[in-house]
TrEMBL record:
Keywords: Acute phase, Calcium, Disulfide bond, Metal-binding, Secreted, Signal. Belongs to the pentraxin family. The lineage of its organism: Eukaryota, Metazoa, Chordata, Craniata, Vertebrata. Its cofactor is Ca(2+). Homopentamer. Pentaxin (or pentraxin) have a discoid arrangement of 5 non-covalently bound subunits. GO terms for cellular component: extracellular space. This is Pentraxin family member. The keyword Disulfide bond applies. It is found in: Secreted. The keyword Calcium applies. Signal peptide: none annotated.
Length: 202
């Protein structure tokens, strides 16, 4: 249980990452990923990387610059332009629905205009899920200049699209539905220089 704790990725650039283990019985037709990050990086960095053997960017939350997020599904991406962060925690949720190809992006509890992405696609279930690095091959192939440096917390993944109420609940750290990956019962393994510390401020 990592309640009120954070992963601190201490080095920049870094070879460190955290492996997450999720129980996925079948491929995904819908999903939502949420996390909270705190960094002063201005270079590109990966937040959440879900790779299958067939597709290294099966699901990817990537920040190429401070005022932009990229959300990948099945190797294709949409871009969400955001105000440059005030050097504060940023909470993001990204959800996707295969039947419509609708990609939703929420920043700090507010929805951005929805975009179209990979309608009819299916996300593979046998995955390597990493925080802090972007995979260019299954479980590896890192470019350290895309690594994350800073603090990560409140990582969740669901096999459904969350309702607007639940998206806001995730931002506010309220009670959430059972998840494939849940911060309060996370199965993880640290690889390299990542330290678990109490959160300094709410």
């Amino acid at each position: 249980d990592l309640y009120r704790k954070v992963f601190v990725f201490r080095k920049d650039p870094s070879d460190a990452y955290v492996v997450l283990r999720a129980r996925l019985e079948q491929p995904l037709h819908n999903f939502t990923v949420c996390l909270r990050s705190y960094t002063d990086l201005s270079r590109p960095h990966s937040l959440f990387s879900y790779a299958t053997k067939a597709q290294d960017n099966e699901i990817l939350l990537f920040k190429p610059k401070p005022e932009e997020y990229r959300f990948y599904v099945g190797g294709k991406f949409v871009t969400f332009r955001v105000p440059e962060g005030g050097r504060d925690w940023e909470h993001v949720c990204a959800s996707w629905e295969s039947s419509t190809g609708i990609a939703e992006f929420w920043l700090n509890g507010k929805p951005w205009p929805r975009k179209g992405l990979q309608r009819g696609y299916t996300v593979g279930a046998t995955a390597a899920i990493l925080l802090g690095q972007e995979q260019d091959s299954f479980g590896g192939g890192f470019d350290f200049y895309n690594s994350f440096s800073g603090e990560l917390t409140d990582v969740y993944m669901w096999d459904t699209g969350l309702s607007p109420d639940k998206m806001r609940a995730a931002f506010l750290s309220l009670r959430l539905p059972p998840a494939l990956l849940a911060w309060k019962s996370l199965s993880y393994e640290v690889k390299g220089d990542v330290v678990v510390k109490p959160r300094l401020r709410e």
